[in-house]
Automatic annotation (TrEMBL):
A Gene Ontology biological process term: nucleobase-containing compound metabolic process
Organism: Toxostoma redivivum
UniProt keyword list: Exonuclease, Hydrolase, Nuclease
Biased composition (Basic residues): 552-562
Sequence segments annotated as region (Disordered): 543-590
Protein name, per record: MUT7 Exonuclease
InterPro entries: 3'-5'_exonuclease_dom, Exonuclease_MUT-7-like, Mut-7_DEDDy_dom, Mut7-C_RNAse_dom, RNaseH-like_sf, RNaseH_sf
3'-5' exonuclease domain mapped to chain residues: 335-536
Entry annotated with the keyword Hydrolase: yes
Keyword tRNA processing attached: no
Bias-annotated ranges (Polar residues): 564-574
Annotated GO MF terms: 3'-5' exonuclease activity; nucleic acid binding
C-alpha cells in the first residue's frame, strides 16, 4: 500500500466522530472486502487497527460497543480469513458476552458452515464450552483433519476426548455409518476419507503431536498390534526369513498380557501349527488355558516347563551354510560390547585419531508402525582390526546418573564433524534421524557432519548391481537388496540378514546378534577399500569420492559436505588413476509412456504425477496393498509404494517394477524423486495433458 494512501486513510479516521462505526458502515456497504487478497477494505481495516494503538481513547465500551460487536459477528462468517484477526481486535470481541458468541457459532454450525464455525471458535477460544465430537465430526467428513488438529491444539482435555472418540469409531464392532448418516447432504462430503484406516492414522498423528499416552486408544493400538502379528506370521511361515528367536521376541513384546491379542495369536497359530506346537507357544506367551481349544489345552497339560521351545517349523532356507554369506575377517575377541564409560572412553581414544577410517552403523528395535521414531539401541564403530558395539541405552543411563548427559553427544559430534576422520555409512540420513530421536542434543548432527561417505550413493552407480544377480545360483527364496546386495557384488557374498529384525533392546544380546551387528559395520570398510583400489571395474570414476559427489543431489551434497580432501582411502591416500565415465542412467521416456499404480498412502503423489501427464492409477483407502501388484501385472504398471508394503510388493513383480518413495517428503519432492529415478522427461505439452 502506498504511503500516500495510508496517510489519506489516517486523515479520514481523524475526521470521523466514530471511526469504528464508520469502518463497519463502509464494509457493510462494500462488496470489495469479501474478495481474497489485500483489497481496499483490508487495507483500511488494518490501518485502523494500527491507528487505534496510537489513539487509545478511540475504543468504545458499553451499549454502543455491544451493538457494533453484534453487527461484526454477522459479517465474520463471510469475510476472508485475513480480516478475522483485525476485526476481532478492533471490536474487542474477546470481551463480548460469551453466551452471545457461542450462540452465534452455533447458528453458523446449524446452517452447515462447519469450517467457519470452527475457525471462529478457535479465534475466540470458545472450544472449552463446546462439544468436541459434534464440532469435529463434519470437519473430518470434509477431510479437514488439519483444522481438527488446530481446534484441539491448546486444550489437552479436548485432545483426550477427541482421541477417545476416534478410538471408539475404530472399534471393529462400531458401525461408522451411524456417524455419517446425519451428514449425507454435506457439501464437499468425502466419505472415502472417513474409514478406520484413515482415522487410525490420524489417531497416531495426534498421539505423537500432543504426546498423549497411547493407552488412551486401545482399539487403534490393538489393531496396529494385530497388523504387526500378521506381518510377523508372514515373515516366519510364508517368507521364512525370520529366525525363531527373533520371532519369539517380537511375538512376546507385541502380545504381552493383552487378552484380546493373545486370542488373535492363538487363532494365527492354529492356522500354521499342529496342536502340540500351538500349546508350546501358548505356554511361552503365558496364554490362559481357558482361551485355548480343548485339543490344545490337553497338549498344554502334557508339557513340562521348558527353558526353550522346540522349533515349530524348520524354515527351509536356514539350511544354507554360513559359508554362503559374508564372513567377518577379524576374530571374535576383537569385537567389544561396551556398557560402561570406562570401556567407551578407551574406544573413543582409538576412533578419534586423524586419518582413521570408521565404519558406522546403528541398530534399533523395529517399531512396526507404532508411535514415535525408533531409538538407537546399538551403535557400531568398526576399525581395521576391531569393532566396538556401544550399548547406547545403558551408556545414556549411566551418563545421566552421573550428571554428564552431554558426554555421549559430545563424542558423537566430534566424530561426525572431524574432517580428518572418514566415516563410512549406508543410508546415514535414517541412522542420524533415529540418533536424534534417541538423544535430542544430536538433532543437528546431520547438518554439521564432514568427511562422510554414504555408500548408499554407490547403489545406482555400480555396474551390474541387480537384485537378481546370482540369486538363482544360491537357491535363496528372497533376492538380496540394499547393503547385502552391494556386499555380494563387491565382496562376492551377501550379508546374512536373518538378525536384521531382532529385538535390539533386549539384553543380553545373543551371539548371532553380536556377529551380525559387527559384520554390518565392518563390511563398509572392505567395500570402500575394494572400490578405492579398483573403481573402474565397478563403473565408477577413478576418484571414488568424486564419483560419489557427482551422483548425489544438491541437497544431499550439502548435507554430506564430501570432497576428496575430506574422504581419503583406507590407506590415507586419495585414489588416483585415469577417469572413466559413470554408468549411464535409464533411457529417457515421456510421461505419456510411463504408467504407475500408487499405493493408498501416496495419493497426493499420484495426483501430482497425473498433472505432469503420467498415466496413474490410485488405490482406494480401503484397498489392500496387494491389489497394487495385481494391477501392475495386468496393466504393465510400475508400483509406487512406501514402508513395509514395499518389502512385500517388490517380490510380486519384475525387477525394477516397484519403487519405494520417501513418505516424509511432500508430493512435489516425491514426484521429482520418481521422475529422476525412471528418467522421465516432462515437456510443457505434458502438463495437465491427462486432466479434464
Amino acid at each position: 500500500v502506498s504511503r500516500q494512501l495510508k496517510e489519506e486513510i489516517r486523515r479520514g479516521f481523524a475526521r470521523l466522530e466514530d471511526p469504528l462505526a464508520g469502518l463497519l458502515a463502509m464494509l457493510e456497504s462494500s462488496s470489495d472486502w469479501k474478495g481474497k487478497g489485500h483489497s481496499l477494505g483490508y487495507c483500511i481495516t488494518t490501518e485502523l487497527q494500527l491507528w487505534i494503538k496510537t489513539h487509545p481513547a478511540v475504543p468504545q465500551s458499553g451499549t454502543k460497543l455491544k451493538k457494533l460487536q453484534g453487527r461484526v459477528l454477522g459479517m465474520l462468517s463471510q469475510c476472508p480469513a485475513n480480516l478475522l484477526d483485525p476485526l476481532i481486535s478492533i471490536y474487542q470481541l474477546h470481551t463480548a458476552d460469551r453466551n452471545c458468541l457461542l450462540e452465534h457459532v452455533s447458528h453458523l454450525y446449524l446452517q452447515g458452515n462447519y469450517k467457519e464455525a470452527a475457525i471462529l471458535s478457535i479465534k475466540l477460544k470458545l472450544q472449552p464450552d463446546q462439544d468436541v465430537e459434534k464440532m469435529c465430526t463434519p470437519l473430518l467428513l470434509q477431510d479437514k483433519a488439519n483444522l481438527v488438529e488446530d481446534y484441539v491444539a491448546e486444550y489437552p482435555e479436548l485432545q483426550r476426548k477427541l482421541l477417545q472418540t476416534l478410538d471408539k469409531w475404530c472399534d471393529p464392532s462400531f458401525n461408522i455409518r451411524d456417524i455419517t448418516r446425519p451428514y449425507q447432504g454435506l457439501s464437499r462430503y468425502k466419505p472415502e476419507k472417513f474409514n478406520r484406516r484413515v482415522l487410525s492414522k490420524l489417531v497416531f498423528r495426534l498421539l505423537e503431536r500432543f504426546s498423549v499416552d497411547p493407552a488412551l486408544c486401545p482399539n487403534v493400538i490393538n489393531q496396529r498390534h494385530l497388523r504387526t502379528l500378521n506381518y510377523l506370521f508372514y515373515k516366519r511361515f510364508v517368507e521364512k526369513t525370520m529366525t525363531e528367536e527373533n520371532w519369539a521376541d517380537h511375538i512376546q513384546s507385541t502380545v504381552g498380557e493383552n487378552r484380546w491379542l493373545q486370542g488373535q495369536l492363538v487363532q494365527s497359530l492354529l492356522r500354521h501349527c499342529d496342536a502340540r506346537g500351538v500349546a508350546r507357544w501358548a505356554q511361552r506367551c503365558q496364554v490362559p488355558p481357558e482361551m485355548l481349544p480343548q485339543a490344545v489345552a490337553e497338549e498344554l497339560q502334557k508339557l513340562h516347563i521348558q527353558d526353550r521351545v522346540e522349533e515349530v517349523t524348520k524354515p527351509d532356507n536356514y539350511e544354507a551354510s554360513k559359508k554362503d554369506y559374508y564372513q567377518l575377517p577379524i576374530s571374535r575377541e576383537n569385537i567389544h560390547f561396551l556398557q560402561t564409560w570406562e570401556e567407551t572412553l578407551q574406544c573413543w581414544d582409538k576412533v578419534l585419531q586423524p586419518g582413521q577410517v570408521v565404519g558406522v552403523d546403528m541398530e534399533w528395535k523395529p517399531s512396526f508402525g507404532m508411535v514415535g521414531k525408533p531409538r538407537v539401541a546399538l551403535l557400531q564403530l568398526a576399525l581395521k582390526d576391531e569393532v566396538f558395539l556401544l550399548d547406547l541405552p545403558q551408556l545414556l543411563k549411566q551418563a545421566e546418573a552421573e550428571g554428564e548427559k552431554e558426554k555421549l553427544p559430545y563424542f558423537i559430534q566430534m566424530l561426525y564433524s572431524d574432517t580428518a576422520i572418514t566415516k563410512l555409512g549406508y543410508g546415514m540420513s535414517g541412522d542420524l534421524s533415529s540418533l536424534a530421536a534417541t538423544c535430542s542434543a544430536l538433532k543437528y548432527t546431520e547438518k554439521q557432519m564432514r568427511g562422510v561417505v554414504d555408500l548408499l550413493a554407490v547403489d545406482k552407480q555400480v555396474d551390474g548391481l541387480s537384485p537378481e544377480h546370482s540369486h538363482e545360483e544360491r537357491g535363496v527364496k528372497q533376492p538380496e537388496k540394499g547393503l547385502s546386495l552391494l556386499v555380494q557384488h563387491v565382496l562376492g557374498k551377501p550379508l546374512d540378514k536373518t538378525e536384521q529384525l531382532s529385538n535390539w533392546e533386549k539384553r543380553p544380546l545373543r551371539e548371532e546378534q553380536i556377529l551380525y551387528a559387527a559384520s554390518d559395520a565392518y563390511c563398509l570398510l572392505e567395500i570402500y577399500e575394494r572400490l578405492c583400489k579398483d573403481p573402474e571395474s565397478f563403473g565408477l570414476s577413478s576418484d571414488l569420492t568424486d564419483s560419489l559427489v557427482g551422483k548425489q543431489s544438491k541437497k544431499s551434497r550439502a548435507k554430506k559436505q564430501l570432497n576428496k580432501q575430506e574422504a581419503p582411502s583406507p590407506s590415507g591416500q586419495e585414489c588416483q588413476g585415469p577417469r572413466t565415465e559413470p554408468s549411464s542412467p535409464p533411457a529417457p521416456i515421456s510421461p505419456r509412456d510411463f504408467s504407475v499404480v500408487c499405493d493408498n498412502m501416496l495419493q497426493g503423489l499420484g495426483r501430482y504425477l497425473r498433472c505432469l501427464g503420467v498415466d496413474v492409477r490410485l488405490l482406494d483407502n480401503e484397498d489392500d496393498h496387494r491389489k497394487a501388484a495385481e494391477i501392475a501385472r495386468q496393466e504393465g504398471r510400475v508400483i509406487l509404494t512406501s514402508g513395509l508394503p514395499y518389502q512385500t510388493l517388490r517380490s510380486q513383480v519384475g525387477e525394477g517394477r516397484c519403487f519405494s518413495v520417501n513418505c516424509s517428503e511432500k508430493a512435489k519432492e516425491q514426484a521429482l524423486q520418481v521422475l529422476k529415478h525412471f528418467n522421465v522427461q516432462v515437456a510443457l505439452s505434458d502438463i495437465f495433458s491427462r486432466c479434464q
